[in-house]
Amino acid sequence: MTVEEMSELGTALSVFLSQFRRCFSHAPTFRLFGLYVRGLLSDLPRKSVEPIALAAGSTVRTLQQFLTFHRWDADAMRDDLQRRIARDYLPAPGSSQRSDPLGVVGWVDETSVAKKGDKTPGVQRQHCGATGKIDNCIVTVHLACCHHDFMAFLDSDLFLPEESWNSDRQRCRRAHIPDSVVYRPKWQMALEQVDRSRGNGIRLDWLSFDEGYGSKPGFLLGLDQRGQLFVGEVPRQWACFPTLPHYHSTQAPHAAKRADHAARHGKPFQGKRWQRVRLARKKLPDQFWHYKAGRVHMSSNGKPVENDYWLIRARNHDTGEEKYFVSNAPPGTVIDLLLRVAFTRAGVKHVFRVVKTETGFEHFEGRSYVGLMRHTALCQVVFLFLAIHTDRIRKKKSGHHLGASVAGPVHSLSMLAAPQIATLRI
């Protein structure tokens, strides 16, 4: 990257940050916001309060107080970020830019960060995706989205374990967790995030998720009630009725079937041949999946729900891996499209990888819930800046649009912050 390009990005960052000025009631706090964001953009190996403060020539305590005690509104920052994404980076519903059948795809997912000790808000021994085992960690639930190559990190919430935290409100208060923040199942947190994003103008054509969310009937019914189209993975033991009972009763005449059983022996699948779909991938060879699809009724509390859904059985041509997906798309929907939507979900892993490796998402070291959620909100802001300007740099270098995703290391972007951190004083 040239000196001129770095200078342009430094100016662009100042303009970008100014759009969040209303979230800060005092100018000194707003200046600390700029300092912290530049730290997250920098090449510091550890992007927590102490190294950012020391690199900027500030006092560590000043930046700690900014993150935990100073008066500024992280929720308003999230809302402003979502409104800007809806206004400037996603096509309006009904516009010609949504002619691509995929449109805007949303992803619900969670991620974990391993922690030591028992003071980090929400920490306990639980499944940790970061280490692949039961470990001491925190878990956060997220909503992200994509349109073509543009990706955005929309929302985040800390999962508060029920017994070890929610039931011990004294422990919560020591960690600055408000009494209004209580245990909710992760799928309920995800529905709340969908509602918030809608309130800020985000309109998702599709929502995709893994089997941890697809296994929850309340989540699927909640999306149905909101009129949100979805394609999500479900476990093979997901309960459904291939056919409805033929008489009126509070009791179903037969038990629900597992998804794998229904997709092999259920009436909606009988006589259907395997179809094949080719799924293109940017940096890996194309994948070929064979699939069968039929309409089934989901089981909720052991009884069939009124609406029917697509159940898709998909088998990888090369590896033999099998997956099951459910969708509330209407009858007549092309199944190839549903599978394309389902397999976009690999993009959310890319989002997590970027926010963890490039924005310091997992570097938070405090004991305050307020500080943790503010740090997360600032990482969302940084991710959007990187997405916007990765696109601009690629356009300059290639002469054509290559999208606004953040692909691979972005240390050239991070360099824009280094000279400013070195000279900034509070």
Any overview of this molecule?
Strands 1, 2, 3, 4, 5, 6, 7, 8, 9, 10, 11 and 12 form a twelve-stranded mixed β-sheet that branches. The chain has two domains: 3-210 and 348-423, no CATH class; 214-344, no CATH class. The protein is built from 16 helices and twelve strands. By secondary structure, the protein is α+β, with helices and mostly antiparallel strands. It is globular, with a radius of gyration of 23 Å.
Average predicted local confidence, pLDDT: 88
Number of helices: 16
Specify the overall morphology: globular
Stretches where pLDDT falls below 50 for ≥5 residues? Answer: 399-426
Q: Please write the string of helix (H) and strand (E) elements.
A: HHHHHEEEEHHHEHHEEEHEEEEHHHHH
Major β-sheet annotation: 12 strands, mixed
Structure summary:
By secondary structure, this protein is an alpha+beta fold. The protein is built from 16 helices and twelve strands. The chain is 40% helix and 22% strand.
Keywords:
426 residues; alpha+beta; 2 domains; 16 helices; 12 strands; 22% strand
Topology:
Blueprint: H1 3-18, H2 27-41, H3 49-56, H4 60-68, H5 74-88, E1 105-114, E2 124-128, E3 133-147, E4 150-158, H6 162-166, H7 169-174, H8 186-199, E5 206-209, H9 211-214, H10 217-225, E6 230-234, E7 239-241, E8 257-258, H11 259-265, E9 275-279, E10 287-300, E11 303-316, E12 322-327, H12 335-343, H13 346-358, H14 369-398, H15 411-414, H16 418-423
Helix pairs in contact: 2-3, 2-14, 3-4, 5-14, 8-10
